[in-house]
Design a protein that fits this description.
Layout lengths: L1 H34 L3 H4 L1 H19 L3 H16 L5 H40 L1
């Protein structure tokens, strides 16, 4: 029973992180649509949200919260697309792509590790 409760808590945490990710991305997209064509949206907001995305990546990694880290990654990636003409941001985009790959791999390794642990505990209990 304890294994089921810890598996339930782990599933709840994963879905909460996905909800954080989706919420931040939807609000960012709605703000982008609302400010499209206004003077503020051309320069200030892309820089601001790219910086906010990088800050969220750092906070997510620091506090080991995948939802915040991936939502920061998505924010930085989405808003840096708006600033594509600047050479430094092309390099930032390459770094973000590498980070997406490594974050996804780390998350999948964690999923596999947790599932293997639960399967091993279940098999030990059955013997």
């Amino acid at each position: 029973m304890i294994e089921l409760i810890s598996l339930y808590e782990w599933i709840w945490i994963v879905y909460t992180e996905i909800a954080i990710f989706v919420t931040i991305i939807i609000f960012s997209w709605l703000l982008d649509r609302w400010l499209r064509g206004k003077p503020l949206s051309a320069i200030v907001l892309p820089w601001l949200f790219t910086a906010l995305g990088c800050l969220l990546i750092g906070l997510g990694v620091r506090f080991q919260d995948g939802g915040i880290a991936t939502s920061g990654l998505a924010l930085a990636f989405y808003w840096s697309k708006r600033l594509r003409a600047i050479k430094e941001l092309k390099r930032l985009e390459e770094i973000l792509l590498i980070y997406v790959d490594s974050l996804g791999q780390a998350w999948m390794d964690e999923v596999i590790h947790v599932l293997q642990k639960h399967i091993e505990e279940y098999l030990k209990r059955e013997k």
